[in-house]
Amino acid sequence: TRYVYRFGGGVDDGGKGDRNLLGGKGANLDGMAAIGLPVPPGFTITTEMCTRYYVDGGKYPESLNAEVASGIAHIEGITGKTFGNPADPLLVSVRSGARASMPGMMDTVLNLGLNDETVVGLAATSGDERFAWDSYRRFIQMYSDVVLELDHGAFEEALEIAKEDNGYSLDTEMTADDWKALVAEYKALVEKLWNKPFPQDVHDQLWGAISAVFGSWQSERAKVYRRLNNIPGEWGTAVNVQAMVFGNMGETSATGVAFTRDPATGENAYYGEYLINAQGEDVVAGIRTPQYLTKAARERAGAKPLSMEEAMPETYAELAGVFQILETHYRDMQDIEFTVQQGKLWMLQTRSGKRTAKAALKIAVDMAHEGLITEEEAVARVDPAALDQLLHPTLDPKAPRDVLTKGLPASPGAASGAIVFDADTAERRNELGDSVILVRVETSPEDIHGMHAAKGILTARGGMTSHAAVVARGMGRPCVSGAGGLSIDNAAKVLRVGGREFREGDIITIDGATGEVMAGEVPTVQPELAGDFGTLMIWADKVRRLKVRANAETPLDCQTARDFGAEGVGLCRTEHMFFDAARITAVREMILADSEKGRRLALDKLLPEQRDDFAQIFMVMAGLPVTIRLLDPPLHEFLPHGEAEFEEVAKAASVSVDMLKRRASELHEFNPMLGHRGCRLGVTYPEIYEMQARAIFEAALIVKQRSGDAPIPEVMIPLVATKKELELMKAIVDRVAAEVFAEQGASVDYLVGTMIELPRAALKAGEIAEVGEFFSFGTNDLTQTTIGISRDDAGRFLTQYVDKGIFARDPFVSIDVEGVGELIELAAERGRATRPGIKLGICGEHGGDPASIAFCEKTGLDYVSASPYRVPIARLAAAQAAL
Ligand code: ADP
Ligand code: MG
Ligand code: MG
């Protein structure tokens, strides 16, 4: 097997640039070189090598040595420099690059190949002694941190002291001799901390860095990130070794990062930051404040330092040309890293840029309009889960705001929560159910778990491309970065701003769209759903096969669902209606009655209320199917609590409190979820389902008369295990329907069907379909009963189950396709065999989960039903599943 692929200088081993093999960075370096863009030559060691390295217990195959040597020779041939040559040394960078860009992987090592001898050669060939020694000290500092994993604080401290001793405030004031002296100190530091001298052999340096990249694949940081993002551990990372180019060779040199469109808003305008006379990550490290790329952005921000467009117009024009080429080539918005060495532009990276949901939507729709991609590709490009960000509220513009300070609008959305100062506390308090805002000077990859746990992120330092900003946008967390007005005292856990003090636990609000930071909680408003969102939904609906309904049980929820494009109600639970304060007493009377007569008296009081509930829902959903589930939960959920409530019910029912209490204790169940609930209630107390059926049909006729557009009730019997149960319940519903239609001299179409939420029902679906006119898979209960795990108690161990790979994902979030999924497939098949064309749907949380929706598409269900806010997500996911 070949493990090394070369690029640059007309050599292109990677061919089409397979990112699985070369990693994202390697594939695109290869790709850029292949289309003739200026890329420093280099080579990539494949992800397969990483996998093999772990399989072989951290060893390399014999052949790798020669392959790496030929890679170095390739770079030497093109640059005319020689690795380790004291007269004219070749320097390289060593970079990691997985298939998916992944924070947590080894940081890049720059200037590798410098030692006590080659630094002299670099000074001679560049004619710039200061530059050479600055590069050497950077190299020792980076290598010690990243490869040797020594305490980087010690090196930063030594630099600070050196500046202080010389009376400097900026790194740029350091002279060649100052750097020389610092290099000597750094080398002493390495010997002290590492017990060995800094490696002078350039090949040792190279292999040390290569092994560090492969080693970082199994670092804790990388593992956490993979877990949060569902990236498999087998993928491995590639290593990229590339000739150095220098952005730190004076005023005509620079380094920068850019996006071909605005990653926050999606606006079709170049966007980026750069720094003159700087190297590598200086731009994102927040050491110096970066300058704007374009004149327009600089003017808009009212900033003084010249933009690149103004300071280096020719190189900027060349760069802008490259942006165009890259967007056309990769057909997506690109995130680009570049360096200018003495006026010459070099491309160091390109990848599809991370973006906010808002930007993803705008860019996809714009690119389709521009003809760069098709409408279907636009549909495929937007992550349904990310739409969530757009569907959620933003700050109410009319609400008063106690603005403390303003930072950069790094990731949109608004969030309120309790201040926490470290990632672990964020995680802990989130688990306790608190909303928290993670407040840091700046974030680093060690903070990822805390950023995930937080509702929002606020940093005092860092630009729009800082770690906090990039990661927050990817996660969909609101973020305000670089809020320079904050002073954070981590030790005392105090945040000071504008003469005020805030402590851990105090509530603040951040607005990631404006950068504002506010004291207290600020109310929010609903999002705007027209424009690009509407356009994308139209395109999605064109390719979608699955219908999308909503789980809704109030007129308001139904209206939200309809506004979001729901094509019916897939689950209207009726029990919540029973909890209403005005009627709970009658409900309790019914439950606690010890005779049918007593129950009927109470049910008579409930009938008009329930009829009104359904009439309101049918009005909103006129013309659309509405699946109504008859009473499902164990009755004890409705029992009175405390003396006062018992007395109230006793009075209404004219019975004694003692008698009620006796009845209540009779209703006690050891395992209510498997107890007297669902259709078992209908079997023992048919009058309850009778009342509900009457309410449904009377309401349907009222609405038919009022609006002329008849609703289509689908009466759903819960927790059916046998055909006989459904037969008995259907007989009740049909009888009541016939009675109501006869009384009113009018009728509506309706169906009677069942939930499939018990394994027995799935197995006997063929038989049950003889009676049931539709099935709705109740995947919450079906998951509980199939796996035998209670959803309410699973929280304590499910994370471990996922961590240990027992389940790929939480089966209550995403359908367990292999187990529960097999039951669904089998029930669908058996149901259809009995009743061809039987209507099949899914309700339950899974109806809004894109992976579960893909499964429903594959199984050929007719519809999914999701909570109102997830309806657009489901529409988009259903469209993607159909593509
Ligand atoms: P990351 O994956 O964290 O972005 P990179 O491997 O892209 O890390 O390296 C970070 C930065 O280091 C680059 O953006 C670039 O500025 C600098 N860099 C990497 N390789 C080179 C090189 N060959 N010459 C000059 N600068 C480089
Ligand atoms: Mg990095
Ligand atoms: Mg990079």
Automatic annotation (TrEMBL):
Catalyzes the reversible phosphorylation of pyruvate and phosphate. Residues 434-515 form the PEP-utilising enzyme mobile domain. This is Pyruvate, phosphate dikinase. It comes from Sphingobium fontiphilum. Mg(2+) binds at E757, D781. InterPro entries: ATP_grasp_subdomain_1, PEP-util_enz_mobile_dom, PEP_util_AS, PEP_util_C, PEP_util_CS, Phosphohistidine_dom_sf, PPDK_AMP/ATP-bd, Pyruvate_phosphate_dikinase. Its cofactor is Mg(2+). The keyword Magnesium applies. It catalyses: pyruvate + phosphate + ATP = phosphoenolpyruvate + AMP + diphosphate + H(+).
